[in-house]
Amino acid sequence: EQTNIVLNVNGIEVIYNHVILVLKGVSLQVPEGRIVALLGGNGAGKTTTLRAVSNLLKGERGEVTKGSIELRGERIENLSPAELVRRGVVQVMEGRHCFAHLTIEENLLTGAYTSASRSEVAANLEKVYAYFPRLKTRRGSQAAYTSGGEQQMCAIGRALMASPSVVLLDEPSMGLAPQIVQEVFEIVKDLNAKERVTFLLAEQNTNMALKYSDYGYIMESGRVVMDGPAAELATNEDVKEFYLGVG
Ligand code: ATP
Predict the structure, then answer these.
(1) Three-state DSSP class for 212?
(2) Candidate of 19, 22, 24, 203 to mutate for ligand 1, largest count of ligand atoms within 8 Å of Cβ
(3) How confident is the model at residue 59 (pLDDT cuts 50, 70, 90)?
(4) Of 28, 4, 17, nearest to 216 (Cα)?
(5) What is the pLDDT of residues 147-173, one digit of tens each?
(6) What is the reported pLDDT for 245?
(7) DSSP 8-state symbol, 103
(8) Any transmembrane segments, and where (predicted)?
(9) How far is the CA of 53 from the centre of ligand 1 (A)?
(10) Ligand 1 atom nearest to 94, measured from its CA
(11) Is 170 within 8 Å of 91 (Cβ atoms)?
C-alpha cells in the first residue's frame, strides 16, 4: 500500500547561536493522515525538530545548516512561519501559550487570521467546540482562570482555527494530570480519524504517546536512535527499559 509522505525531514542539522550543534542529521517521514510521535528525554532535540519544520528557529537564534525539509515534495525551509500556516502547517507550542487576559473564545479567534471569511471562522469555531465541549462551556472565561488542561485544549483549538492539514504538537502532556492527558490524546485521535489531520507530536510521555501514535521516532542528543511502528516500540525491550515509565 502506497502512502503519501506529507512531511519529509532529510538529514537536518540545526545550530544555535552559530556554534551549538543541536541536531546532528535528523531524518523522519510523516505519512498523510497519521500520528507520528517524536520521543526522547529532556533536551534530546524534539522541540528543535518541530521548530525547524515550522521555521520558528530564528527567534531562538537557531538555523538549519544542513539537510532539507519537504512538505508534499516541496522544499519549505525558506518559507515564513505565516506562509507555512497558510499551507496548512501549524505548530502548537510547548507550555500552551494562551493569552492570559483574553477569554477562551478570543484566544481561539486569534488562530483564525488566515481564514477567508467570517462564515469560515464561525464554522471552525463550532468545529472546535464540537471536539472540545469543555472550551464551549468556558468560552467566556479568561484563559488565566482556566485549568491547565483547558489551556492545552485552547492551544490546540486555536491551531485548528487555521484549518491545518498538519499539526506539530509540542509536549501536549506537559504538567497535566494523567486523566487530562488521556482526554487530550483522545481528542487528537478523534481529529486525526474524522478530520484527517496529520500529527507530528513531541512527547516525553512515551507510554501515552505510543498508545495513540501510528509510528514513533526516538531521539537522543540530537539524533534519531530508533524508529518503528508504535506497537512495536511499545513492546521493544530497550524502549521499555529506557523510556517507558519515564515522563
Ligand atoms: P524539551 O522536552 O526539554 O523541550 P527537547 O527534546 O525538545 O527537550 P530541545 O528543546 O530541542 O530538546 O533542546 C535540544 C538542545 O538544544 C538542548 O541541549 C538545549 O539546551 C539546546 N537549546 C534549545 N534551545 C536553545 C537555544 N535557543 N539556544 C541554545 N541552545 C538551545
Answers:
(1) helix
(2) 22
(3) confident
(4) 28
(5) 999 999 999 999 999 999 999 999 999
(6) 60
(7) B
(8) none
(9) 15
(10) 4
(11) yes
Q: Using one digit for the tens of pLDDT, what is the confidence trace for 105-117? A: 999 999 988 777 8
- Which helix H or strand E contains 172, and what residues bound it? none
Q: Which residues pair with 91 in a beta bridge?
A: 168
Q: Compute, in angstroms, the gap from residue 36 CA to the centroid of ligand 1.
A: 20
What angle (nearest 5°) sits at the alpha carbon of residue 79, between those of residues 31 and 71?
Answer: 15
Q: What pLDDT, on a 0 to 100 scale, did the predictor assign at position 116? A: 75
- In whole angstroms, what is the distance from residue 76 CA to residue 201 CA? 19
pLDDT of 45 over the 90 cut: yes
Alpha carbons 83 and 63: distance in angstroms, whole number: 18
Instruction: Give the span between the Cα atoms of 216 and 239, in whole angstroms.
Output: 11
- The rounded Å distance from CA 84 to ligand 1 centre is 22
**What are the φ/ψ torsions at residue 55 (nearest 5 degrees)?**
55, 45
**DSSP H or E segment with residue 121:** helix 118-131
pLDDT at residue 90 is higher than 80? yes
The CA distances from residue 187 to 156, 183, 216, in Å, are 10, 6, 19
Gap between the Cα atoms of 246 and 220, Å rounded: 14
Residue with cell 491545518: 164
Task: Count CA within 13 A, CB hemisphere, residue 167.
Answer: 30
